[in-house]
Amino acid sequence: MNNVIIALATPPLKGALALIRVSGDGAFEMTDQIFSKKVSGTTKREIYYGTLSDNGQPIDLVLVMAFKGPNTFTGEDIVEISCHGSMLIANQIIEAYIKRGAVYATRGEFSSRAFYNGKMDLIEAESVNDLINATTAESKNLNLMSLSGETSKLVDPLKKQIADLLALLEVNIDFPEYEDIEEINEKTIVTHIDEIRKTIANLIKGGKEGKIVKEGLKVAIVGEPNVGKSSLLNALMNEEKAIVSDIPGTTRDVVEGDVSVKGISLHLLDTAGIRNNADKIEALGIAKSEESITKADLVIHVIDAERGESPEDLRIRELAKDKILITVYNKSDLIKNADKDKLYISAINKDIKPLLEKIYEELGLSDEAFTSPSLSSARQLGLLMSIDEHLAKAKEDALKQAPIDLVSVNLMAAYNGSRELLGEGATLDLTDEIFSRFCVGK
Fold first, then answer.
1. pTM of the predicted structure, to 2 decimals
2. In sequence order, which residues have a C-beta less than 8 Å from that of residue 171 and are 6 or more positions away?
3. What's the confidence (pLDDT) of residue 207?
């Protein structure tokens, strides 16, 4: 764990500057071997200006920032080198350290060291990667809350509620003769569990909303050929992303694009028109369209307002029955009598405001989803659901008047799940899988 690691912390591209990060016991001494100034002996944060050389050959004039552990990101001694942004220079600096015993960092290794050295919990560590991948200001703000520890604070009341009930059960098991303790019974256990499950229900609700804000949604635009799907994609993105033609079957493959709607990132998939009697090539595109529906979170079903619905539209609805489904009637500019119960747009004229409002309405997000921390990653939501399942089993055992020690088995599993949210007692396999998603140098 304490060997010196090194990685480029900025993108591997030519630029004005590049930043190289070094961490581990011996990072200062290793720097002394190639830098014109002495870094070892630094007791606080210092910045040095000088020349980096390898075997007497100058590499670059650089700024070296030395951070003395344990008050650093990783909890170890850290050196950050700001050099000119040539990849030749950056690689020569990295090679100079590797010659002297450093190893190139794996994905997320700096953050994993921060976690293992107690500088952040697992929720905070996950937020580092989420912050890097944020695509909207709203997502960025929520991830900053997580990085600052606000999200982790949501776990403490849950842990305490479960721990308090466990303690009450344990004291009744171990010291049943004590008269000054609250006597546990079926009603007491059920009442406590119901209260805890209310807490979890609120956390899951907030987490699902937060997940939408942080990660956005996959949106499939589907319909028969020539109903205006590609025009709608272009209107949503405000650019000519997809080819528009009055020839049915023009779109043969899935065309993708991203757009933000009121702070929600939408990953749009414009698909081939779904119809019978398609030729072999078009049929492949239709198969991809149907696959896009299964992968989407939200489906926009486009219907030609002039032609109305067809048997194929019924099939599309069946494919999307388990999704958030919005049916929109395009080419409103070509009809005279609109049905007040239908949602109309004119994609070609970029008159799509009613659709944007409908999308936001269907998501049903509360104002708090944009301003409050939430346990929103797949791992965190999965653990909350698992904790709830264990509590449900404990309640079921209590209602069956099972022995108290049997009830406590599922309560202990729920408590361990709450600890796992923060990474307490997390396995190496779990954390390795999480940090492998990070970029190198973070």
1. 0.78
2. 178, 181
3. 95
